[in-house]
Amino acid sequence: MPQAPYGDAESLFRAAHNELMRVAYALLGNHADTEDAAQDSFFKLVTAWHRVGGLPTPGDQRAYLIRIVINEALHILRYPHRRWERLGVDAADREARWEPLDEQVQARADLRLLWKAISELPGMRRDVVALRAAGYEYGEIAASLGVSVSTVRSHISNARKQLSRTVARDWEGAQG
Amino acid sequence: MSRRVPADGQRDLLDWLYELGKQRAERVPEFDVERTISRAYAARDAGAVNFWTVLNPAERSAFESAARKQAFAPGTALMREGEHADAVMVILDGWAKVCLDEDGRERVITERGPGDLIGESGTVPGNVRSATMIALDTVQALVMRTEDYTALIADFPGVPDLVKKQTYDRRTGRP
Question: What is the pLDDT of residues B122-164, one digit of tens each?
Fold first, then answer.
């Protein structure tokens, strides 16, 4: 249902869709969460279209959209699993998962503090790290976000130090 | 493949995430982009503004006196996809899931809880529900006829233009 003024947002979303799904799925690891991230990302794109549509190049618009998807995926990773799944009403999606649910729940609980620490990294550093966590090579990260490879390298190197400090401190706190 | 986080100091966390992400990226399943787009629109139609909290006390009591209170037991429908939309509701307590029927399978697209205005797309004359809403626990809601709602919010300065604009957009057939 392409309708002005969102037809352009839909076109951008369709063109970037494969990459968006790759990023979201690599971070989230299951079908239902990836679809949620996609749905919410499209919603955010439409809401922000007055800004995104004015960006100078298609590459800038695409980079903005990738950052929206990263943000949505990190949000899902940081916060407890959604209510309807806790209540067991989303059974239809479970069959589509390739990781056993209890392992996913355990892994997610283990990792929540790490995702929280990643979410709290400053702007571009956070997105560079998220794409690295999605299995991207440095050159791919640079191309997707429209920055240089040396910028990517320096963000990752700084983030490594920052994360190991933060996570060590939070885990101690959580256990103590 | 271990899903456990490596013990601190044994391995770099970011390298570990990178390897996990890379493995997953090699087996990304199919996702239907058109379905995602229509779900996003349907979720928005289900109401995305926390209505109750933007009203001032006088507006809330005006709303309350024009509405009736109704309780929905867990598992019952507040509204059904395809039905004529003749009422709007504000959830006061409890949660409902919003779902679409996709080829006979239920697909949950979002959830609504306290303060949410739902069924507001019924302000388009002759409109039908774009989604089904099922109570997840006991839902207490204020239910109001659509005509009364439309007349009422026109006079509410506390209702943000966003909500009024959504109503306007739907009336004029914009997405």
Answer: 666 667 788 899 999 999 999 999 888 888 887 776 665 555 5
User: In this structure, what token pair is assigned to residue A101?
Assistant: 């649910």
CA distance B39 to B49: 17
Instruction: Read off the pTM.
Output: 0.66
Token duo for residue B111? 């959830």
Q: Compute the distance between CA of residue B80 and CA of residue B82 in angstroms, rounded to an integer.
A: 6
What's the rounded Cα separation, in Å, for the pair B25 and B47?
34
What does the angle CA A173 – CA A161 – CA B17 come to, to the nearest 5 degrees? 80
- CB nearest A110 (choices: B4, B12, B97): B4
Quote the CA–CA distance of A10 and A8 in Å, as a whole number.
5
Interface test with B, best of A21, A39, A72, A164 (most B CBs within 10 A): A39
Are B14 and A160 a contacting pair at CB < 8 A? yes
Distance from CA of A109 to the nearest CA of B (A): 10
* Residues A159-169 pLDDT 10s: 998 888 877 77
Q: Which residues of B touch A27 (CB under 8 A)?
A: 21
Q: Which residues pair with B112 in a beta bridge?
A: B96
Query: What span, in angstroms and rounded, lies between the C-alpha atoms of B139 and B154?
Result: 27
Cβ(A123)–Cβ(A130) below 8 Å: no
Q: Quick one: tokens of A24?
A: 């979201």
Alpha-carbon Rg for chain A in angstroms: 17
ipTM of the complex: 0.82
Task: Give the chain B residue whose CA is nearest to the CA of A129.
Answer: B14
Residue B37, φ and ψ in degrees, nearest 5: -65, -45
